[in-house]
Amino acid sequence: MTVINSIIAVIGTLILAFLVSLWLPGIERKFVHARIQQRVGPPISSPGLMAPIKFFFKETIKPASPMPRLYNALPIISLLSVVFILIVIMPQMYPLAAFASMVAVIGLLKIEEVLYMFMGSLSKSVLSLRMPFPDIVKGAKHPEVKRSFLEELSTVRAFRLIAFGSFPLYIALFVPVTMARSIYLQDIVAYQHIHGPILFTVAGVLGAIVFFIGFMVLLNEYPFSILKAKADVIEGPLLEYASKYRAYVYISRGFLIFVLATVFTTLFLGMPPNIMSWTILVNILVAIILPILMAVLSAFSPIFTNKQFYPVVAGASILGVVAIVATFL
């Protein structure tokens, strides 16, 4: 009976998370971006719910790619990796100690990040049309000149994001680890049930600030949106996804917002997502607050250049290290 209850709890939490995540992009766009910019904005259901439905009914286009099936499968893999993160942090998974640990959470987050590199490197078209650069029409062909595509620029930036940009988030994740002296989620949650939420400590406050910066970087939101250059029509490695595969992109972003919020509530408040407990309301509340704060900051922020991006990320990383050191004091 306990196993059946656990399965029901996991499935119920996933369904609730999915339903909530559909509205988060609309809350971000409608109630923050639009209000700050003094415009009406889209309906709250448009970015996260209606847009995916619309794209599911679009005609499927075979992309110009050396591996078209893998290229189209990448948004689905991204969504699945985020789903598994949510499953990992659910308390029903804690008996599987090796599975429910920070190693699993960080590994799955890294999978989500590295997929951007594959997205950019496997796309060989511009707006679904094959168009090599430079031009190869008669009289314009340049021998021994490397042909490049817009998405390949995003591949380079995705590597920078993985190698450097995501440091603040991962450093912040280790603040609860060092306080609880354990990499297992069960121990981190149990520590906070005894000593109180980590968020209400000096190290926790610093870690939360660093986590929020990493939250924005991982979501590629302004001012940390190095994946979205103007040369890529503001879409970066996601430029060429069409029809149902673009729908998965929209769904993945909303779901990632919710999952990162639940990671925060689990590690810094000791409240993992569980539909069988009232704490799920805290998870939902944090999932609403974080994108609102992100939207406010991005609405008033410039777009960082590399010269601005790297110092800010380095400063946030140093602050994260200070937070970890503070856990030993």
From TrEMBL:
Name of the protein described by the UniProt record: NADH-quinone oxidoreductase subunit M
Transmembrane feature ranges: 6-25, 70-90, 96-118, 158-178, 198-219, 247-269, 275-297, 309-328
Organism: Methanobacterium congolense
Tree of life domain: Archaea
Lineage: Archaea, Methanobacteriati, Methanobacteriota, Methanomada group, Methanobacteria
Pfam families: NADHdh
PANTHER family: FORMATE HYDROGENLYASE SUBUNIT 4 (PTHR43359), FORMATE HYDROGENLYASE SUBUNIT 4-RELATED (PTHR43359:SF1)
A GO cellular-component term linked to this record: plasma membrane
Membrane found in the keyword field: yes
Keywords (A to Z) from UniProt: Membrane, Transmembrane, Transmembrane helix
Cellular localization per UniProt: Membrane
Keyword Thylakoid recorded: no
Membrane topology: Multi-pass membrane protein
